[in-house]
Amino acid sequence: MSKEINQNLFKEVMGNYPTGVTVVTTTDKDGNPVGLTVNSFASVSLDPLLVLWSIDHRVTTLDSFINGENFAVHILAGNQQELCKTFSSKNVDRFSTCEWKISDQNLPIIEGAFAVLQCNTFKTIEAGDHTILIGEVVDIQIEKKEPMLYHRRHFAAIPAEFYVTN
Fold first, then answer.
1. Comparing 158 with 118, which gets the higher pLDDT?
2. What's the pLDDT at 11?
3. Half-sphere exposure (Cβ direction) of 80: Cα atoms closer than 13 Å
4. Per the domain annotation, does 163 fall within a domain?
5. Is residue 14 in a domain?
6. Which of 112, 147, 148, 157 is packed most tightly, with the most Cβ within 10 A?
7. What is the CATH number of the domain that holds 116?
């Protein structure tokens, strides 16, 4: 198989794998908020609490994330589809379209998410055309909302019958 065929098949397979949707935020060297939509998010460890996500090397905010000391992962709520689209768009003032504030960890925190994990950067790993960022979770906020699901290029809330609360 050619490289192009393999990439297309890979995209088809991964596009059929349901994932949650996140927006990851940090600040740039001047203290300005930056953020982007990410679905390459996973838990890594319980001791210590570690999560990971990956960023494309072509993203304009790459340096802010890989050289930063921390980042926040917002696990989006099912009703945040427009926010998800905005943070995946180019040439948009993303933070002007939502309510947000700076946390005690000096991170931009977007309101209305299902959960927010504030993380200190634990390790970065170059992997092909992406860098994997591993973060140690230092703060967790959670709301009683339904999280968002991404499948076959569509966003929706996880159906209520699948959502378990404590």
1. 118
2. 78
3. 28
4. no
5. no
6. 148
7. 2.30.110.10
Position 166 in a domain: no
Report yes or no on 61 lying in a domain: yes
26 vs 63, 67, 71, 107, 164, CA distance in Å?
A: 11, 11, 5, 5, 30
- Angle made by CA atoms 38, 163, 21, in degrees to the nearest 5: 5
Indicate the helix (H) or strand (E) that contains 27.
strand 22-27
**Closest C-alpha among 132, 159, 155, 158 to residue 15:** 155
pLDDT value of residue 82: 93
- For position 24, what pLDDT does the model report? 98
Domain that holds residue 132: 20-150
Helix (H/G/I), strand (E/B), else coil: 9: helix
Check whether 67 has a pLDDT greater than 90: yes
Q: Confidence class of residue 142 from pLDDT cuts 50, 70 and 90? A: very high
Number of domains in the chain: 1
Rounded distance between C-alpha atoms, residue 51 and residue 157, angstroms: 22
- Angstrom distance (rounded) from CA 64 to CA 104: 19
